Amino acid sequence: MTAHVTTGVWCPTLTPLDNALDPDLRLLSAHLCWLVDQGCHGIVLFGTTGEANSFTVDERRRVLEGVLAAGFSPDRLIVGTGCCSAGDTASLTKHAIASGCPRVLVLPPFYYKGVSEQGTIDAYSREIEATADDRLRFYFYRIPQLSGVDITAAVVDALIERFGPVISGLKDSSGDRESIEALCNRFGSRLDVLVGTERFLKRALECGAVGCISATANVHAPIIRALFDDPTEAAQERATLARDAYESAPVIPALKAATARRTNDDGWLHVRPPLVAVQTLGG
Amino acid sequence: MTAHVTTGVWCPTLTPLDNALDPDLRLLSAHLCWLVDQGCHGIVLFGTTGEANSFTVDERRRVLEGVLAAGFSPDRLIVGTGCCSAGDTASLTKHAIASGCPRVLVLPPFYYKGVSEQGTIDAYSREIEATADDRLRFYFYRIPQLSGVDITAAVVDALIERFGPVISGLKDSSGDRESIEALCNRFGSRLDVLVGTERFLKRALECGAVGCISATANVHAPIIRALFDDPTEAAQERATLARDAYESAPVIPALKAATARRTNDDGWLHVRPPLVAVQTLGG
Which of A3, A258, B83, B169 is most deeply packed, by most CB within 10 A? Predict the structure, then answer.
């Protein structure tokens, strides 16, 4: 049994862009403050929702530095650092730790498919060894429908065995209720297990999860926070209904469009290709 | 009708690694010379077989510089430059052109799945605009089973329409005979269409392809060259049979192991995770 470091409702923030599709740090900082006001316990910078892989290593470093320079607390940040190359992952991870953000959320290398468990273990091991810092707090990022690579219990076990306390948590965005519950049951007392959607939050909390990291926290964090604080059946139903509104559309452009409407700022509509923006503010 | 720039048998070279899993430029240069001696018309540096996405942008630049410094002709090179972020792709593409290698083979951004044709067009357009160099010779890299993103005729048409002569070719590694033949028929007179396997070479040549870029050219280029020079049914059968030997195993470790046996050099066994090396030289 380990004391949990990360609990509650975390938002994988959208990354607002200017007309040149460069990160808009002014809009981003305002959004992060708003999210905390809305009840988020913290923010994941550069998850899938933040279009992480559409940015270069240098761009990702500069955004983290900008957010911290604007006064946002590193204690409220987890930084996505997983790239295809171990060199890029280690570089971003070292930078995050040096910036006061030891919690990193790490995709497996996501180009090759049909990767073996041993290959995934080797890849993560190489990155952690290259980081070479005991302050590291490593969170697995399980999202096989995009990465093409699963994070199995055997992978998690092997890395706990090898690296001990730096292995801190797991974000499960697989959307597969059965395997999520199995991972919560197995690792909930040892790791911070966070589910990738509020849709499963009540049940996941019962199985050992400590919270969620959900894209739709960008638009309706209070509903998710209410569910986390008091996980009743009614709160779950309300959260699931709110989530449903985003299931049919491409979620990142839709969340940016909703934010553009809320803030009355068209700048929020911009996405980086290969995503395609929702073209108008509309209704 | 355009004069074809790239024809024949091209080898997407393996990238040999040293004990620290850094590129071994000595082994690589020797391998490239051997491949040309074996009948390859040219080399693709940093395709899928070359573990391209397991290297950082800086590593990829240094390998190209090392190959050229060792005296290999840039006229015999196509450079893989497609990354998830437009900034990385443009950076590698500019570097290749400045190094005398205007032919680049470009994956679409490969993290997001279910990407629209418009998103793929937008992503490629942004990269070509950022490169901003008329010397560019751009080759699409179609390998949806790994990238998760298809290159359709509509995508190719849109980019030809927009960028004209810089759009030079297409490597089709989809393994899907029907769509390969359709693309050969449609674009064979306008683009250099190269198939990703000798398995389809005879038929593809009949449909308008100008050659192939095949991983197994790393081990049996003469068989593929014989098929290209005289595409008889017997030559196709011989090439298909040779290819079959590599269809059941993870192909990159198997090709490296075969090269280790041929050169009697264990160094060739190294792969970067998430690939897993074949552990012994064996038989």
Answer: B83
Per CB-CB distance under 8 Å, the chain A contacts of B88 are 56
Cross-chain residue pair A276–B116, CB shorter than 8 Å: yes
Per-residue pLDDT for chain A (283 aa), expressed as one digit of tens each?
A: 568 999 999 999 999 999 999 999 999 999 999 999 999 999 999 999 999 999 999 999 999 999 999 999 999 999 999 999 999 999 999 999 999 999 999 999 999 999 999 999 999 999 999 999 999 999 999 999 999 999 999 999 999 999 999 999 999 999 999 999 999 999 999 999 999 999 999 999 999 999 999 999 999 999 999 999 999 999 999 999 999 999 888 999 999 999 999 999 999 999 999 999 987 554 4
Question: A106 is written with which tokens?
Answer: 């790490």
- Is this prediction's ipTM beyond 0.90? yes
Q: Is A81 part of the annotated catalytic residue set?
A: no
Q: Is A241 exposed, middle or buried (0-12, 13-18, 19+ CB in 10 A)?
A: exposed
Residues A276, B59: C-beta atoms closer than 8 Å: no
Closest to B107 (Cα-Cα) out of B181, B50, B63? B50
- Mark whether A256 is an active-site residue: no
Tokens representing A26 are 């002014």
d(CA A30, CA A44): 15
Establish, for the pair of chains A and B, how many residue pairs have beta carbons separated by less than 8 Å: 114
Reduce the secondary structure of A65-127 to three states and give it as a string. HHHHHCCCCHHHEEEECCCCCHHHHHHHHHHHHHCCCCEEEECCCCCCCCCCHHHHHHHHHHH
Closest C-alpha to A272, from B224, B126, B205: B126
For A57, which residue in chain B has the nearest alpha carbon? B88
Q: Which of B56, B123, B275 sits opposite A87 (nearest CB)?
A: B56
Cβ contacts of B57 on chain A, cutoff 8 Å: 56-57
- Spell out which residues of chain B touch residue A23, defining contact as CB-CB under 8 Å: none
Domain residue limits, chain B: 8-269
Classified as helix, coil or strand, A129 is: helix
Say which of A141, A197, A202, A216 is annotated catalytic. Answer: A141
- Cα A97 from chain centre: 17
Question: Phi then psi for A108, rounded to 5 degrees?
Answer: -70, 160
Residue B114 backbone zone (phi > 0: left; psi -120 to 50: alpha; other: beta)? left
Catalytic residues of B: 48, 111, 141, 171
Residue type present at position A73: S
Counting every residue written for chain A, the total comes to: 283
Residues of chain A positioned with their CB less than 8 A from the CB of B149? 274
Question: A8-269, what's its fold?
Answer: TIM Barrel (3.20.20)
Q: Among A56, A148, A276, select the one facing B122 at the smallest CB separation.
A: A276
Q: What is the pTM of this model?
A: 0.97
